[in-house]
Every structure is written in structure tokens, then in C-alpha cells.
Design brief:
about 775 residues, 3 domains, disordered N terminus, about 70% helix
Length: about 775
Amino acid sequence: MMQAAAPTGVSAARAVWLLTCLRLKRVANQMTVIYNRPLSGRKGRPATSGKKRNRWVVSGVVAFFMLFAYGNIARQSIVNLHRALDHVPYARSIASGPLSDALVRGLAMQLSLLLVAAILGTLASRELSQPDWDLEWLATLPLRTPMLLLCRIMERSIANPLGLLTLLPAGTLIAWISGYRWSAPLLGAIATLPLLVVAAIARTLIDTGLRMSLAASRLRNLQAVLSIVSVVLLYLVISLGMTSPMAFVLGWAREFPNWGSWLPPGLVVRALNAPQLSAQIGIGLLLIVEVGIGLWGSLALIAHQLRNGVVAASSRETARHSVAMSKGHGTQSTRRMGTVVQRRELKLLLRDRTFLVQTLVLPVVIVASQVIFQGRLYGSSFAGASNAAVASIAFGIASYTLMMSAFQTLNSEGGALWLLFTVPRSVESVLKEKAQLWAVLALGYPIAVFAIAAVIKSQADLELIGLAAVVLLGVPIYTLIAVSLGVFGCDPLAQEVNTRLRPTYVYLFMMLAGLYTYAIFASEWWQRVVLIVLSGLLALALWQKARDELPYLLDPAASPPARVSTSDGVIAAMIFFVIQGIAAVFLRDEDHHLSAGALIVAYSIAGGLTFGLFRLSLWRTKTTGVPAVFGARFGRAAAWGAGTGLIAAAAGLVYIFTMRHLGLMQDAMPDSARGLSAGAWIAVLAIVAAPVFEEFIFRGLIFGGLRRSLGAAPAIAASAAVFAIVHPPVSMIPVFGLGVCAAFAYDRTKLLLAPMIAHGLYNAVVLGYQAAL
């Protein structure tokens, strides 16, 4: 029972300040990446270094860009409302000054929708469905009930990131168009504060009532429903900021009643746009009175809800309910499906309704909302949509599903993650089985989307089939990427549940998934092949890094020892091509042409810098498995290089001869002629520079990294495929053969001399044959 007249240990202002600081500290901890330091006076394990965590939160940068994005949406929303309500169809901005009554009502509707979205967004958080309720221990503080509730509302008003993100940009822009200019941010923040108080009142009133009246299972169901409703409402508000807003939303703005503009959101607009100071003071006082009455009434109602104490109905589950759940039909349906790990994952998914909805339902809602409200199919039916649009929708739903599921693989284990390290199986094998399960579940959405598209379009043309293949190949690749990034993004040592997942990696996954859409909209088949192969290589590289990290996941002070990995090769290749492009820009002549001599210089600069930088980096980090050029097997390496080089050259000559006689190399002949006209320069580039630099990257780093995780044949094929796709499409096939021969020679000799000789010999033979022609 809550004591009605507990002695007051601190003043009311002090209590509000302390609880607000506590809430802000908690929000800051949830938004930051925890910085783990080694224990003082102790060192990490041998051959390891302490884990490096960035204390300067990336979330600060993310928050800035999100505020900028919401501000841009708010600006476009005001312009769209100005066009529709003031009948100015070509307006791109609004002149400073008094707003029309219609626009005031429209902005009042916009702020009202934003306020409701902020309330629903906070209620849709995991906090509502958690068994622990902070009010149960807050009630033990030496504060009277009304003062405790007032402190709770005040600290929730200030520490409300979602409310600030949605309301502050709109309030600032309304102040700007009202003529306040550079004082608009301050006035916008002041005007937003009463709305944050209203949001805190509504949140406290609703979640207290729900906690006191509903069981935990029903709270989880309600939280799942709220997560969907909040997303739809948020996209509804965002749709006002699109270039082509939804007509029915503008219709709401036209029909918004006049009395609605005298509620707190409308009073904020009226106060900011009032022409005289006296009018502003009067409207401001009315706003304070309305919020005050709401606060007084809510405190009385919450106190009535807590009249019998603060032990929430959701805090206890009966044993009978648990037994019923364990004997439910869901266990029978999953008993013979998949492995033990996969059946356990399915059982947990079926039991956690919030997780179930967020994993399997929310992705569909998010993508459907984007399609409808952002206008991707606006003005056309699904039957008239392009095949690329259908494919992007299919991959979008799958990628959101993976973000909610595969990415959360380790995080969903919660505090019991350490148990995975005690079972007689490797954690890597457990993650693989989970990845397989989520890949299968995520594939269901693209298959359904393409099936619906084929039925509606009454045909499945070759383009649609090809795009379906691209998407269906991308889903398992990005499942592996999601699980790998989930390892890096999971912090099982975090005390707060909300801090166990680093949001930076979530944004990274979505960015990488967005890059894959280029494979859908690419105009050439070889561009799609390049993106698929590169995505697959990235997945393997991240998985390798994640696998190395797993044994040290629960150790706050140690990291895996440095070893050559596939990601090193990917980074080296990117640096090589970037430096080469930058050098080529500076070496062009006055007519912006790049001579053969300048080409060899740019190539040599890029290769030399990449080679030197990575050698230095590998030496400083004491990396093991660094590829060596020379060694005790010098003669054996030379023989293997010469033999495999001749085999690759013979296959290349057969390919060139066949393609020329079939008339399939006409487009490549002018480029070949220009290259041969460079004479000695192209010979130096092809026979000396290319073998040295490219073999270090593609065989020494990429193949060497893949060889740690794969067998010889898959590693050879994968590295050769990556090597081939960075060359022109007409030469991909013979270059792939060269990559196979060079990787095979390196695998047998462990020296880079062998693939360098093979590469140089191949280029020399091919150049000589082309020159003879």
C-alpha cells in the first residue's frame, strides 16, 4: 500500500530535479554505447587487447540528422498545407507574417497528430510489457502521492526523446514562419514544452491504468497492437511532408473544426502567430490553464487508480497460466519442425506476441505505409507497377523482417546468453541454425509478393523472374549479414535491457540493405552479378569477424587476436580503387585525358600506398597469417606459378579466339587497340604492376581470409569471382580462370610469388596475342 502521508525528506523542486536527472541519465545510458575498460592494474588475455568502445556516442550525430530529417518533413508539410488551404498551388515557401485561419486550423491538426503519435510511440515501447514497473520502487521514496506523481509527469515531460523529435521541429518552423527567425528555436522549444507535458500526462494516465487492470499477457498483446498503430499514424503524419501528400489527409485539414484549434496544439500555433504581445500573453495563459486543469484532473484520477497500492496486476503470472502455455498447441505444431535450436526459436517466437508482431507483421505495415504514404505506387494500381517496384517492395519487407529477427538473434537471448556457451555445441553452429530459420521465414514474403504480382499481372515475364532471382538470392545473404552485425551490435554486459543493442549497427544494416536495391534497378545483368557477388563477399567477411568475436563476447576486457581476414581484403580493394581514381583526376592533362603513362603512375601510386599502408597496419597490430612473397619454397613457387600461368593463358587464348570468330568481341576491339597503342607502358602495367598489387589484395588478403572459414575449393571459387567482377564484363570469364589458377598456386605454395608469376605470364601471353592480331 502507498503511504498517504509519508514524511517529506526533500523539497518538491528538489524531488522533481532528482527524478528528472535520474530519467535523463537512464535515457542517456540507453542511447549511448557503453564504454568497457579493462580492470585497473590488470591486462587482457595474452595476444589480445582491451575492447575498444566509442564513448562519444554516434547517436548524437544520428539524432542531429533525424532532427534535420523531421525538420525537412515539417517544412514541406507546412508548404503543402499552405498550397491546399490558402489555394496557392505553386508556393515553395511561406512569407513571414500572420497566417490565415484555415492554415492555423491545418497546423493545429498537424500538431495534434504529432502529439498523438508521440503518445502512442512511447506507449508502444517495450517498457509497457516488461514485468518490472519503476513506480513500484518509486513509491518507496519519502514523497507524498500527489508530489510523486507530479514528479513523474514532469520528468517524463523533459526526458521524452520521441516527443522532442516529433514536436520540436514543427514548433520551431511555425515560430520561423511567424516572423521570429533566429529566435525561433528558443520559442519553438518553449512552445513545445506544454505539449510534452500533455504527452506525459496521457502516457502516465494510460500506462498506470493499464498496469493496474491488465495481466502481463494482455499487456504484451496491447503493446504489439500499439506498435503497429503508432507506425501507421507516424507515416500518416509524414505523408503530409511528401511532394504528393495524400488527398484524404489534406481533406482532414480542411474539415478540422474550429474548436480544435483552441485545444493545446492549436493554442501553441495561435500563440506563436499572434500579432500583438498582449494577444500572445492571453493565449499563453489560456494554454497554461488548460494544461493545468488536465494535470490536476489526471493526478486525481491516477491517485484513484492507485488507491489500493502500486502492485500492478501485470507483475505476477500464475503458474497455471505458464503450464497452459507449455501444453499449448504451439508446441505440438513445432515439435517436428527443424532442429532443436530452430524449434526453440519458434516456440519463443510464438510465446512472445510482441516479438511475433514486430517480426512478422510490423515489416509488412512499415513497407506498406511507405508505399502508400510516400507515393511509390501513388496514382497507379499494383497491376500497373513496374517489376522493379514490385521487387523493391519484396526485398524491403524481407530486409525489415531480418532487422527485427535475425539481427536480434543474440539480443533475444537476454540475460541467459551465457547458457549458449555451456552447451556441448559451438555458438557459431547455433547461430547458423537460427540464421537458416530466419532466412526461410523471411523468404516467405518475397515469394508471396512475386506470386501476387504474377497473378495480378496475369503473367510472369522474364524480367520479373530475373528480379525474383535477385531478391531470393539477396535474402540469405543479408540474413548472414544481419546475424553478423547482430553479434557486433549486441552488448550482453549492459545492465539496461534497452542498451543491449547498439542502434548504430541497425542503421548500418539498413544502409547496406538499401545498397542492394541497386541490383534491382541496375540496367545491365553484369551490374547485378557484381552487386550479388560483392554482397556475398561482405556477408562472408562479416561472418568471419563475428565468429572470431564470439569466444570473447562475455569478456569485457579482451578482444580476439589479430588475424588476416576477408574484411581486410575488402577494405584494401576499396582503398586501392579510391586512391587510383583520385590520382587519375590529378594526372589528367588539360583536355581531361589520361595518358598511358599517367595511368601506370596512378595505378602504381594506388598499389604502392595500399601495399605499404596494409603492411604497416598488419605489422603494428601483430597480425598473424600475413601473406609472404618470398620464402624457403622459392623454386617450388616459381614452378607452380609458371605452370598455372601457362594453363590460364592457354584457356584465355581459346576464349579470345572463340569470341572473335563468333563476332562477340566487336565492342571490345577499340578499347584493346587503344591499350596496345600505349606500347611499353601497358606492358609494364600488365606484367609487373598488376600482378604485384592485385595478388597481394585478392590472393593474399581475400583468398587468405576466406581460406580460414571455407574449404580450398569454395575459397578459390569465391576469390576468383570477386577478382573477375572488378574487370570489364567481356573479360570476366578468362579472368575468373586466372583467379582460380592463381589461388590454387598460392594455396599449394603459401607464397605470393606463385600467383604473381601466374598473373604476369597470363597478361604477357594475352597481350602478345592481341598485338599479333
